[in-house]
Specification:
The protein is α+β, with helices and mostly antiparallel strands. The chain is built from 9 helices and 17 strands. The strands form 3 sheets. The chain has an 8-stranded antiparallel sheet with strand order 2-1-4-5-6-7-8-9, with helices on one face. It has a 5-stranded parallel sheet with strand order 10-15-16-3-17, sandwiched between helices. The protein is elongated, with a radius of gyration of 23 Å.
Length: about 400
């Protein structure tokens, strides 16, 4: 056995089973230029207002939605806002932006880079999927008059590449399983890399709890938590009976982050309320139940984020890859304003809970905070400092 084969085996054994995004690239996006950010299981973008924290999370969410097959105009309702402020149009008055990421997994690191034209009309003008120094998919806009891009993907058969048009209003990578036959080793390599990228991107839950929407009774529905967590009471109505162990962990977390005694967290139908609605309450243990409407904004945000970290994709409004077993997927939570309205005790308790959950491998967190010095002593936290 040669040294190189030993190295190859060690590398293969070190590859993660669950695909995940390990780098975000903002080549030209909003306030960012030529920026690359490493991402760990728990990453916090830190910096003052205007430093680009929110735009970094917005780019990540955009890639996730594109990876799920969404159309460009759904993902970028205001594409001009994504163009760097000082970007000048070319001779055809075109301006745009570039974003990308790297997904690690069983196939090793796979890179995806996307160029989007925002003006004069929104379209994808270039996409490149690479792995191991090999270009697996490349697209380019050849004819501005056609609503398509010319794509070439790796074949390694009688012809080195296969060429065909792809639509210019959505990402080509998630479309490859519909276009690539998988008959040659090269085609199978393309499909494996594309699947790894799509699985890494798709299971994303962008979460920004809005306390004002969590204070009132809500109608019963599917029991899947929404982005603003306004239907938290409905979700508690479902989850409290479905998994006692996780609910117990949630109660422990709430007890650590809320003022006063907490025996339980529950949902009930309001007395004399509208049929079909529920509200959430804290059971104080002495016969007193406090409606969540009486809690402070920080307590409500803390409670909602703790619920997100302690549940799974089945309880959150996310677009998972249904054809891939859940055991091979990782949920990524995007939390803009992760520390908003939280006091020192709440934010430290929440980041420690996040670190414990992320260490298990089934969840990742990318958050934005104004300052991350308070998280310096927590193991497993990757801090990305942004300068204005």
């Amino acid at each position: 056995m040669t040294v190189s084969s030993l190295g190859s085996r060690a590398q293969a054994e070190a590859r993660p089973d669950r695909p995940s995004v390990v780098e975000l690239r903002l080549t030209a996006f909003a306030a960012h230029r030529r920026a690359g950010f490493p991402l760990g299981p728990l990453s916090l973008f830190a910096g003052p207002s205007g430093s680009g924290k929110s735009s970094a999370l917005r780019a990540y969410e955009a890639l996730a939605r594109l990876g799920g097959g969404a159309e460009l105009d759904e993902v970028f309702p205001d594409p001009v806002a994504c163009v760097p402020e000082r970007a000048r149009p070319d001779a055809q008055r075109r301006r745009g932006f570039r974003i990308g990421c790297t997904a690690d997994g069983p196939e090793g690191p796979v890179r995806l880079d996307v160029a989007v034209q925002a003006e004069p009309e929104l379209r994808i003008v270039g996409e490149r999927l690479t792995a191991g120094g090999l270009t697996l998919l490349e697209t380019a806009l050849r004819d501005p008059g056609r609503r398509s891009v010319q794509a070439a993907w790796h074949t390694a058969g009688s012809s080195p590449v296969t060429r065909a048009p792809l639509p210019d209003d959505r990402l080509g990578t998630p479309l490859l399983p519909l276009r690539v036959a998988g008959k040659t080793d090269g085609q199978r390599q393309v499909l494996a890399a594309a699947e790894q990228m799509v699985v890494a991107l798709r299971s994303v839950f962008a979460c920004d709890p809005l306390p004002r929407s969590m204070r009132t009774a809500v109608p019963l529905g599917a029991g899947r938590l929404l982005r603003g967590c306004g239907n938290l009471a409905e979700v508690l109505w479902r989850t409290r009976s479905e998994c006692g162990r996780r609910h117990g962990l949630l109660v422990d977390a709430v007890r650590a982050g809320c003022v006063g005694p907490v025996l339980d967290l529950l949902a009930e139908r309001p007395v004399g309320g509208i049929d079909g609605t529920v509200r959430a309450l804290l059971d104080r243990g002495d016969g007193l139940r406090t409606p969540l409407g009486r809690l402070g904004d920080g307590e409500l945000r803390y409670l909602a984020l703790a619920l997100v970290l302690l549940t799974g994709p089945g309880v959150l409004e996310v677009d998972t890859a249904g054809e891939v077993p859940a055991a091979l997927q990782t949920l990524t939570v995007l939390a803009d304003g992760f520390d908003r309205d939280l006091d020192v005790r709440q934010r430290e308790g929440l980041v420690r809970l996040a670190a414990r959950m992320c260490e298990r491998g089934h969840i990742r967190l990318v958050g934005a905070v104004s300052d991350a010095s308070w998280a310096a002593g927590v193991g497993g936290v990757t801090v990305v400092d942004l300068e204005p």
